């Protein structure tokens, strides 16, 4: 009896022990284990809409669309081909935008009682896509090899209200759903506070200009280093540095050594005496006596480097500038440089009757390469990068949506739009980054 | 030995009593030294090494700086791991050391290593260690603002540059000297710089390069001492002055002579006060501001330092120009005061309740006072102990103190003493003479000292598992356990010494032991109950068993959380914009956000730090802002009953309407802890290490795909490693050579032209400002025309940038993270509805099978699962050992396994009450509650001990089991009720308090109160039943059993 009792005691004491052990080891680690998840929930309090976005991304499979949308999660069932599933009765439709290796296209799989519906069945499928702003794309499907293929390319952005119509066995089935990407709602009052400024896309002028640098120089034809024709002694010098002389004015009188006759040297053109190395009584030999320069016309010799060469041609308008002074002129010639340099020289005449310009002055020349009137331009401030695209954001009411653009000519203020936007669309100019930020914000995280 | 001590205590009673003065003095003195804070510091031992590298892109910062620094740290003693971050202009390496490493030792070692690598780092860069502070360090923040209409000395209104100058040169130097402040960190405004901005055309005109200007500026800006000469006995110092002082001084620096005429800086450049390329900004209430943060040195007393800073700030104010306003926006003192007030209130109310209970139940004022005196004395000893062991006073460390438990030992002794005294007086019909009284006190004490000492020892032992916790849990709960243990030991010592001494001295008069009415009523109620219970023992035991079972089931129904979060009373919020957002854009978005938050009537102030402050303690990109929402006192709220959680929900809803921001709500201290502890905060983190970032991301995505197919996975995601467009200027080597340029010529020029180049300093008294050379704003920001930027050639001509380099937008990483010296990308996942261990095993196995990593890439696993694993492992060893120790103690006390087991069965039933109490109050299980359960086990054992030891004595005395059980139980009713009442009432204020910090203590208190109720029931009813039942077979040979 006694050993039995003792055994009972041991068992009971173990019961007590294990009770305490259990409760302790249950409480401590489980509390710890749940810490992380609880903490995580807390940390992600601010990400409710991220969750929604995620669901959305999956639907759009491959490009991680950061759009906004309120989806009925129940609808987001995925089919065997990774598309969206629709059921009615025994008919199942799977719809997918396929974009691997091809331009985005709709593909569909229809099955009835679990069997694929082929072309011979008279089934008809049509999808209409209503985009922001009311544009409707209608896509009709034809039976291809393994699937029903929608005609035409599904243009970016893939953001629309989708309406699906399926006619099969005299049954008219319809489904509607929303599929948004790159779309946000911002209340007008908030947009105003955030300085979101919009403008209407329309025609504009795009000019392409390039900035060149170069020095001014005197027209070589208007610079004369006056020398004596025959060596002799200088009798008289009529002009001094800085004097303005007219063509034909006598400048120097010289008595020839050989003939001992006097002869005069006259000004070959109107100009200013810029240098004088002659005084009465001196001997005139090979040296320059006077330098006569006509400053009324200077040339800006702008350097055109090889990579820029293609843009320049004679006759282009140039705005030549130094601080406080700028004139319009045009390229008269394009000449190779002095030989050792790789650049060519674009020569631009500068009227200088007032003497505002001086030679050997570094000037800036803004050359207008091309100026075109184009049908559609957008303000440069409106352009943002979004994924691999350059986009603007159009505004309709409180809704903003990306418009991926194909761009043409760019200038300092505006950019030509070749495709992706319609004239008359209202798009965001000021603080467009904010719209981008709002669309992409699901990706923003606290990265320490 | 115990007898010896007791005898000494009673013989030398006056000496013993005088020890109270010593305790008092040392306790009060220690209190002055005691570091007081709101929460325990959970930061690990870490050193941040920041290297500012102006202009460096993340890739360059990583390659040139981070890598070198990381390598230098390898192999330091105690180093656990390093992690690093390379960003624009910053490399930050964080070295984490094992907990027992002395921080200063670690810093010293690092310093040594850093000085060795100094030569291998690029010129002009010097790695610096972060402030000697922890996560609790940011104790005080203030803003500097100018009142409307305030004018600078030169008549202009104050702009953010001028305010920043005041902060840097007037305010900061004064605050930095406050004892206990290790750093004053600044964010916001612009550091004043002198800018020389040459125009490219003018430079070409004179054939001057940036280098020429730099050389000219450097060469005309120094003072020089030239020794001394002695003139007729007088010593004259010689000095040559050449420093540039004013803008016009700079303008007049001659760069070059052309045809005899000087070309000065003014000819080719404009000179002015400019703005730095800043990395951070600060805002407040919808406007930009300058924000200073005082950081406390490790181990200082928060309250003292914060107060000293506030005081110094007030002293600084008069030294500022009129119209400048310094305002404290965050002061930790408030929080500390509030939490300490909560703790104090709990403790004092608890103590008062305990005293009242003692008065009521003992029915003797003197006895009650003697017992109550144990409370302050034990508290003072504990404070001295805390100072000695370096435990700070905070919510957690003081949170588990229950005066009920502390006085338990004393209660038992005093109760027995007065019972015996009263009995003896009644027998003798007179007041006892001194000698008799003393010996009676000695006997009475000796009678119960063993069980009560054992009781206290057992309660102490149950806290052992808490000491085995490591990491964050350890830092939170070890101080708590340490404090409780210290208090209990103090109480134990007191009840051995001072309590008997005091009883001997003060219980001199007539000791009336009138059983108070409460006790009499309980006794009359208890006897029939006990007798019934003894009759219906089957029912009683099965009911108890049923209760335990149902509570076990109930405990799985309770939710669970880690630790109830301390509500700091203020809200911190991360506002996150998309990566790559510029600082100015972020500021404008931030201002909108703050306007919105200010609309809440509960909000007092809103301020934010955007990007990285001066000292990169928290290197955030400009796209992230740390918002601090300071709330008004509750009484000023329109609806004071609104909880903070509800307010946060309202705010979240409101700010979510603002476009472009994501939010995370947290609290200031919590936020800082999270930032510092960092690491992987999910259950599982799979880290991929390797060289090529693109490959890392690809592999990470593969891993993500595999993870997503595993059962139980939740929130799996890849750490965002996003490439952002970077303006890349790639030199065309051929073309460069043709123009006689080297690649570095081009790079130097571009760096100086766009980023700016330092060309010396301008001194204004103490204040010193960089003299920076860079191109005018309109040129350096004109990206479209960047290709046309002329680059001067050695022969005084030029070549456009596009001719010698390609300018392109190229995606590049905006940040590179590394760990243990290698680039890494982390895939994180949580686990739901499955146990962590098997999940992790499956992940490891699946990845081994399915993942194809290129050579040179490897995986590592991290996350909280590691801590959980190690914690469970440790607990599964420590908890049984603890139980064995308790068992051993009990067996030692009784010399009987059977009795020890009977007492032990009390534990589950005690826990039952705790579980029910939690359930009733709708609280989840948490570690705090767990600590409550631990305390409870101790109380349960103690009660059982007291009860059983008396029953045994009775049985031994009169050999009649039934009578012994009933009589013994009746005698012990009072002490059991008393210990139970004091233990539970001591916690009542804690359970009901709603002040700051109360949420952490509430579960603990709730568990103890609930548990004590059930434990008392058990001790009074089930325990005697069990004892009777198990021993009735031994009646014949009971003597062998003892």
Regions with little confidence, pLDDT below 50 for 5+ residues of chain A: 1-75, 444-448
Say how many strands of chain A there are: 32
- What structural class is derived from the secondary structure elements of chain B? alpha+beta
Number of helices of chain B: 35
Q: Give the terminus-to-terminus CA distance of chain A.
A: 70 Å
Give me the oligomer status.
heterodimer
Distance between the termini of chain B: 22 Å
Helix content of chain B: 40-55%
* Total helical segments of chain A: 4
Radius of gyration of chain B: 37 Å
Structure description:
The complex is a heterodimer of chains A (448) and B (1042). With 448 residues, chain A is α+β, with helices and mostly antiparallel strands. Chain A is 15% helix and 46% strand. In chain A, a hairpin with a 2-residue loop joins strand 28 and strand 29. The longest helix of chain A has 42 residues, at 2-43. In chain A, 34% of the residues are buried. The model of chain A is unreliable at 1-75 and 444-448 (pLDDT under 50). Helices cover 54% and strands 19% of the residues of chain B. The two termini of chain B are 22 Å apart. Residues 1038-1042 of chain B have low confidence and may be disordered. By secondary structure, chain B is α+β, with helices and mostly antiparallel strands. In chain B, helix 12 crosses helix 16 (471-496). The chains are: A alpha+beta (448), B alpha+beta (1042). At the A-B interface, helix 1, helix 3, strand 12, strand 26 and helix 4 of A face helix 6, helix 19, helix 20, strand 19 and strand 26 of B.
Labels describing this entry:
heterodimer, A: 448 residues, alpha+beta, nine-stranded antiparallel β-sheet, 32 strands, 46% strand, rod-shaped, disordered N terminus, disordered C terminus, B: 1042 residues, 35 helices, 30 strands, 19% strand
